[in-house]
Structure formats: C-alpha cells, structure tokens
Amino acid sequence: MADELALDLEELRHLQSIAKRPRIVSIISTEICNLEKLSKEAVSAATSQTPTPTPTPTPISSTKVVPTPSLNYVTLGSFSWDQDNDKVKIYVFLEGVEQEKMETVFKPMSVDIKFNDVQGKNYRCAIPKLNKEIVPEKCKVLVKPTRVIITLFKASKGNWLDLHFKEDKLKPNVDKEKDPMAGIMDLMKNMYEEGDDEMKKTIAKAWTDARSGKTADPLKGYP
C-alpha cells in the first residue's frame, strides 16, 4: 500500500506542476496533503507491526559459598617464663613457626596466641587469667628458629608470684553478719586440706573437742 501511495503522490505532484487554473491547483494540493497523511500513517503502521527482538537474558552465575572448616588446635601446656620489674617473658619451644601465620590476642588479664600451620599442625598458647594486669598495646611476639618469645609488659611494676591468677586460699572469709568464728573455721579447713598428716591430726582433734563441748583452743598445737 505504501508503494501505491508513493506512485500516486508522484503523479499528483507532476500534475500540480503543469496545472494552470487556480481551482485545479487547489484540488490537486488538497489531494496531495491527504495522500501524504495516508502515506505517513501507512509507514507508522508497518513500523509498529515489526516484531521487537526479545533481548537474550544474561545468565546469572551462582557461586556456592563453601564454609571454612573450624581449625583444631593442640594446646601448649608446657612452657617456661621469667620476669623483671617491668615485664614477663614466656618461652614457647616450637620449631617452624611463621610470623605471618600467627594470631595474637592480648587483653589486660589474658593472653591467647595461635600458631597456624606449623609443620601441618595448629598450636595454641592461652592464659585465660593472668596473675596481674598487663598493657596489651605494648606486648609483642618474637619468632626464633626453635622457639617463640612472648613479652608481656606489666601494668604496674613489681614481682609476680605466678604467671596464672590464683586465689589466696589462706585468706579468711570475713563477714560481719556471720559468726565471728566462721572466718577462723574457713582458715582451718584450708590448712587441713593443704597440711601434712600431723597437721590434719591436730586440726581433726581440735574439731572433735569443739563439737564435744570442750573449750580447748582450736589453734593450740600449731607451731
């Protein structure tokens, strides 16, 4: 149809160019306008009927996340240590340690060092509660060929009696609301648990005398 309209327009324009009378020219011009309108509509209709190509969907790649297995660690329960007035040094005798494969966690009252992939194994040196507080930001780890030196800087200068925190078992539990003798009895229990056979006999006799109503001094017989 579009081709036919194009031929008609071409012929009308030719007639318009040779026409002399105004009325004839006007009629031809009106028809040309009508045909041009029809021609545009025909082209638009043909264009709208042309199927739009369906875009090919881009395949979405799915990456499966594989969970990292948790590592198993061998606990290093045996190590040596020494100290001066400012710091404590812990010596871990372990060969094949690499500095970049270590994980260090220093806290005011604890230390946790992990040695990963040491000759195919993972090791851990952890002290959950130190004897006294340290300064975490100053602490450091030095790797030697046959050992690892962990340096802990003390928060306050002084001597540590032990590396680990320990309760003072000989310290009586004083409570004003309890019997005044309760603290002494707690002390005697601790001394009984840690004493030798002779001390245990003496304390047992004192307890027996106290229960039987005797007024003997419960601490009599101690050096």
Q: Layout of helices and strands, plus pairs?
A:
Layout: H1 2-18, H2 22-48, E1 74-75, E2 80-83, E3 87-92, E4 102-107, E5 110-118, E6 121-127, E7 140-143, E8 148-153, H3 182-194, H4 197-211
Parallel strand pairs: 1-6
Antiparallel strand pairs: 2-3, 3-8, 4-5, 5-6, 7-8
GO molecular function: S100 protein binding; tubulin binding; ubiquitin protein ligase binding
Keywords: Acetylation, Ubl conjugation pathway
Protein name: Calcyclin-binding protein
Give a written overview of the molecule.
May be involved in calcium-dependent ubiquitination and subsequent proteasomal degradation of target proteins. Probably serves as a molecular bridge in ubiquitin E3 complexes. Participates in the ubiquitin-mediated degradation of beta-catenin (CTNNB1). Keywords: Acetylation, Ubl conjugation pathway. Residues 149-223 form the SGS domain. This is Calcyclin-binding protein. The protein is an alpha+beta fold and 223 residues long. Helices cover 32% and strands 20% of the residues. Strands 1-6-5-4 form a 4-stranded mixed beta sheet, with no helix packed on it. Helix 1 runs antiparallel to helix 2 (22-48) and helix 3 packs antiparallel against helix 4. Residues 215-223 have low confidence and may be disordered.
